[in-house]
Amino acid sequence: MSTKRNAYVNGKIFTSDDSNLYAEAMIVEDGVITWVGKEVDMPAEDYEKVDLAGKRVLPGFVDAHEHPAMLAEMSKQISCLPPVVHSIEELIEKIKEVRAQQGPGEWIKGWGYDEGKFAERRSPNRYDLDKGCSDSPVYLLRTCAHIICLNSKALEMAGVTKDTPDPEGGAIDRDENGEPTGVLRENARDLVNHLLPPLTQDQKADLVADLGQLLLSQGITAICDMGNMDPSDNYALYYAAAEKGFKQKVGIYYMWNYFHNDPDFRIPEKQFDKNQQIFSAGIKTIGDGSVSGRTAWMNEPYLDSDEYGISTITDEEMESAIAFCKRYHCQLSMHAMGGKTIDRMVNRVYKEEKWTLDDTPHLRLEHITEPSDQAIEKTIEKGFAFATQPIFLYAEIESYLKNLGPERTKTTYPVKTMLEKGVNLCFSTDAPATSWAVPSDPFPCIKGAVTRKAYDGTDCGQDQAVDIETAVKLYTKASAGVAGFKNIGQLRAGYQADFIVLCDDLLSVPSEEIDKVCVAATYVGGEKVYEK
């Protein structure tokens, strides 16, 4: 069997490998990098040369926190974000358009609404949605994915009335008469989520395969699936999507709130093999909500209120999650935006010894809006990891200013401080749970990290900005390490040849133009799988 050898030459290669950060050429044999360096030092061997035409080359992006199955399904729903929707009135018109195309009783679904971006500067309610449709259930998911808005028909089907109590870890918004407004927060979503009609596995696989092509066009070659809003198992789904052309490597996390009461829940040992394209990475718990929805559980109250947010996990669920991960030696992830939630989990797992068997952190915390000094210190000491999303401040600045105020907002997500102290930290998007029209796009995320400005130019704390090289490493090498991916995230000998060629030089364009950079070509295992 012949060996396929390609030499990629005449490139501006940024490797994310600190021992050899910049290169001009790279040799790939059967999908694996065997050499990286200056072109004049390239070994004299028999290979086919590929001219990179002086373009910037990076490792493929590793998005360590996405919800791809959700994102794929949402491609067929109403986008409630600019530039599609700018107001509640426009949202009502979109609902009417969908209703005109389907029969009565069929669900109308939308995603991504953010009251901070509506002209009315308020959340929609049941009565707004009723104007769009009253004879079919309407279900809208807020941008944070922790809050939903329903019309009266959907509330009726779910049996939610003024007499329905708030579930533990959730809240039903009510008007002055105690009637539900249609907004359900956190665990209250489960009152209706079980009613949503599921897609077939084949339909889901088609959507995920289509999403894979979008991700390739954005330079994303590996992802972490951080769970669904239902107990479905995505392991088989990704294999079905791979048969339809899905190329990304995937680490899957199971949402523990759906399984912690199931004594028969298991993850087969073979699924933990990280040498596979698709593998099980661990489980995920939800510790609180979102800053934009005022449900993240904070150490300090929200602006002009005595509200601290919501804790959404019981001690019993947290303990069972730790026990499960120790048993399977797999990673535990927790959604932890607020300081109280971060402290709670860090303090609890601090008592444990590392239970993963490789260099994968046994605990990773997601988002990390306001970590305390002691949480940072304990995280460094115990080797925990943080996965954060610069896109939140960049895209959702209106909500942060409203809920925290300008000065406190500048202190959130202290990326540079955490890096200087030695925190194992990476970047990701949390797509689709962010208020951006194309939420999986890495470039606005990177721009937000480098400029520490929002999309409208608002200063988000210049002292926490990072340089472009650091931002790229946090989206490649660091993301692979936090998630436990093997032999990806860097362009170095022995690593898989997952890399991207850019239309513009990301490392030299003005920082205000980072979001305009695009991908010219994407390679997975040395195979060109996308070309602009």
TrEMBL record:
One of its GO terms (molecular function) is hydrolase activity, acting on carbon-nitrogen (but not peptide) bonds. Keywords: Hydrolase. The keyword Mitochondrion does not apply. Residues 160-181 are annotated as: Disordered. It comes from the Bacteria. Residues 50-530 form the Amidohydrolase domain. PANTHER family: IMIDAZOLONEPROPIONASE (PTHR22642), PROTEIN LONG AFTER FAR-RED 3 (PTHR22642:SF2). This is Amidohydrolase.
